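To start, one record:
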Amino acid sequence: MTSEVFSYESLVHAVAGAAGSVTAMTVFFPLDTARLRLQVDENRKAKSTPAILADIIKEEGLLAPYRGWFPVICSLCCSNFVYFYCFHWMKASWLKGRQSTPSIDLIVGIAAGVINVLLTTPLWVVNTRLKLQGSKFRNADIRPTNYSGILDAFEQIICKEGVGALWNGTFPSLLLVLNPAIQFMIYEGLKRQLRRGAPRELSSLEVFIIGAVAKAVATTATYPLQTIQSILRFGQFNTPKEKSKLLSSLKTIKGLLVNRARKHGVLGLFKGLEAKLLQTVLTAALMFLLYEKIASCTFKVMGLGSPHYKKH
């Protein structure tokens, strides 16, 4: 069991996934900035992504779209390392050389997502706060914050809001493990379809397209919950007074969803979806492309061949 948990193959996949995601996010980071502003700042008028970015640059400076890049990259690197490692370790342990199926991909994806959420949510809470710090909001109710860096943000949140605040948004995040699970299920399923007949390494264009399709479907299906997740992580909301934390979380999510729908209509739940799709689809497609290439090259350099092509 120990050798299965600490396997070289899982480590290669984890490092490749983390490196690919960090590179892809850096390239498309301004698109994520536009998406987050639309989700959190209710009074900001929904415009096209280029128009939102133009407003941000005009009001806050040329580098504003990259504000909070370092904490986001740190969080993303840790998060994807954990997810890719757990996904490939659990999948290899379950299959033991057999062919995978969409249901197995989905179950393993959900399990890996739960582990990832519980371990990395504090990093995402801090990165959301730092990313939005110094922003010029249209909503006057949003309170300004003053964090000097990642460690200071952790310290201030714990001192002022308690340790539990580092796990703000955990409940919707646990529901959102469906996002990467659906994404990986579609991605792995499309890979198997393209490899029917003879195992082969997919072309760069094929990997890019199926990565984009998988992420587009997963993002659209789960977007309203992603908006609530961002609001909860930002910490600018009123929490219902309930003895049960689960009941409190459910009431908070319901309240935020209903309030947003009342103010902006059902389409208000999808405010920022264009920016999110543009950012997340391009980022995921590039991430999968880099991940496949890095993993493939590593296996070849080590003279192992890729078990990824043979088993999965």
Residues 102-132 form the longest helix (31 residues). The radius of gyration is 20 Å.
